Amino acid sequence: MRIAHLTFTVDTAATQQALATLVAAAPSVRAMPGCQAFIPFADPTVEGGLGLIHEWDSAAAFSAYLASPGFAELNATLRPLMTAPPVSRRFEAEPVCDAACRPA
Fold first, then answer.
1. pLDDT (tens digit, 9 = 90+) per residue, 57-70?
2. Comparing C-alpha atoms, which of 61, 62, 64, 57 is closest to residue 88?
3. Mind giving me the DSSP string for 10-55?
4. pTM of the entire predicted model
5. Is residue 101 within 8 Å of 13, Cβ to Cβ?
6. At what angle do helices 69-78 and 59-66 cross, to 10 degrees?
7. In what order do the strands lie in the sheet with 2-9?
8. Which domains are present in the chain?
9. How many CA atoms lie within 13 A of 61 on its CB side?
10. CA distance readout (Å), 36 to 9, 64, 73, 80, 84
11. Which helix (H) or strand (E) holds 73?
């Protein structure tokens, strides 16, 4: 499983616009083959901070997303709003618990 964390900052006046852009894209990204999660969020600890958590079945599925027109559109909309380069971290992970897990 490929997990990607993306964090970035935008001018505070653009925070809601940028978050709305990510939220609007969520249904189409989630419908892509291999997408397990696409979760945009505002980071309340950083002024203008936003983030995105991705979970994909495989690196290939994530790469297909990165090559998609939807990703290009998001990038074209969000990059001009960013006040600094985004920070993207990607991980390979094996789930130890599925959706049926319950805390002990």
1. 999 999 999 999 99
2. 62
3. B-GGGHHHHHHHHHHHHHHHHTSTTEEEEEEEEETTSTTEEEEEEE
4. 0.89
5. no
6. 60
7. 35-43, 49-56, 2-9, 87-92
8. 2-92 (3.30.70.100)
9. 20
10. 25, 14, 21, 28, 28
11. helix 69-78
- Residue located via tokens 């390979």: 92
Which tokens belong to 43? 């980071």
Q: What is the CA radius of gyration of the chain?
A: 14
Give the tens place of pLDDT for each residue, 30-61. 999 999 999 999 999 999 999 999 999 999 99
Residue type, 81: L
